[in-house]
Amino acid sequence: MSGLSSLIYISYGPFSFDKQILSIIVGVLLTGICKAIPVMLFSPKQFIRKPSQWLHYINDYRATLSAANNFAFNYCVKRIRDTDVQGIDLSSWRICFNGSEHISAKIIEEFNEKFTNIGFDEKAMLPCYGLAEATLAVTISDKDAKPNVFSFDSKAMYEDCLAKECQDKSKNSIKLVSLGNVDSNTEIKIEKSCGEEAEEGKIGEIIIKGKSLFSNYLNSKDECLRDGWFATGDLGFIYKNNLFITGRKKDLIIINGRHYLPSEIEKTVINKEYAGIKACVAFSVYELNNEDEKLALVIETVISKEDLLLDIIKKIKNNIFEEVGVRVKYIFATRKIERTINGKVRRQDCKLKYTNMINKKLKSKQN
């Protein structure tokens, strides 16, 4: 990377999180710098209390490398005031990995808009895809280039599981961020449910093969690789040699034959910025003695007034039906949605908890 003679790494994440170690290694590979690298870590709790501290540390230590996820970038946009970062300079920050969860084009745009005026370079943002089983990195966006964003037709995606490019401002468009080219040391294929390789633009499960791939899980008696290929459990597609992720296979919502992405349903809620709604998580549930999936939503809110909460829930249901075309049957409100150590919502835990709650109530009514 031109003009970069040293690496200084800063992160709010625990060093036990594999992304921390691999971010440093990949940074070395991108820059060709092979020497001792200063590493500065601070508490995730400190980041949550005061996210501007992350940017202050980057300024104070002239950090060149730092990594985060969609949650962190959005948290900075929402929580940091202009006065909180007055006088700091982010021009030293040359590598900014963005991964670990769904990457929002809107949040990248908002982060750039908010922080480019204090030196953040849009080209530093590198959307990427990786997993521990591949020693993390699978694809990384081109350095020294802005993130590559495409618009796709939502109807084709929901009904045909097909990525069909469309105009940016089309009513039914979905913006997805490229996670880099598939021309990497790791082989990448998209596999259809029948086991055949999918054609370009067709959504299926991402399978990978390469020298950095693990051989098996510790103490596991089951074979995890098939002819050297590993099924990641992630859904995505390849388009114009770019890799795109649409979600997790186990999280896919199928209602009346249409495929819905939880991230798109959640984005519909978050983008409306309802007062008092901090986050949400979407998933499908099976009701007792009913084989059809129903859409459920959990919203994280501080609202306690029942009439106000019911009014917002009604608006959310109408909004999702108008924009996504699917009806929400259940919406639950909670003070805090459970998350992983790196900020991801525990979707499957939510699904299990609220499915059990729904069916317990249905069973009591039957009795």
Model description:
The protein is α/β, with parallel strands linked by helices and 367 residues long. It folds into 3 domains: 9-146, Rossmann fold, CATH 3.40.50.980; 150-251, Luciferase, domain 3 (Roll), CATH 2.30.38; 253-366, GMP Synthetase, Chain A, domain 3, CATH 3.30.300. It has helices at residues 18-31, 44-49, 52-61, 70-79, 105-115, 154-160, 262-270, 306-323, 347-366, and strands at 9-11, 39-41, 65-68, 95-98, 125-131, 136-140, 149-153, 173-177, 187-191, 204-209, 225-226, 229-239, 242-248, 253-255, 258-260, 277-286, 293-301, 328-334. Helix 4 (70-79) crosses helix 5.
Give a nutshell description of this structure:
With 367 residues, the chain is α/β, with parallel strands linked by helices. The protein folds into 3 domains: 9-146, Rossmann fold (3-Layer(aba) Sandwich); 150-251, Roll (Luciferase, domain 3), CATH 2.30.38.10; 253-366, GMP Synthetase, Chain A, domain 3.
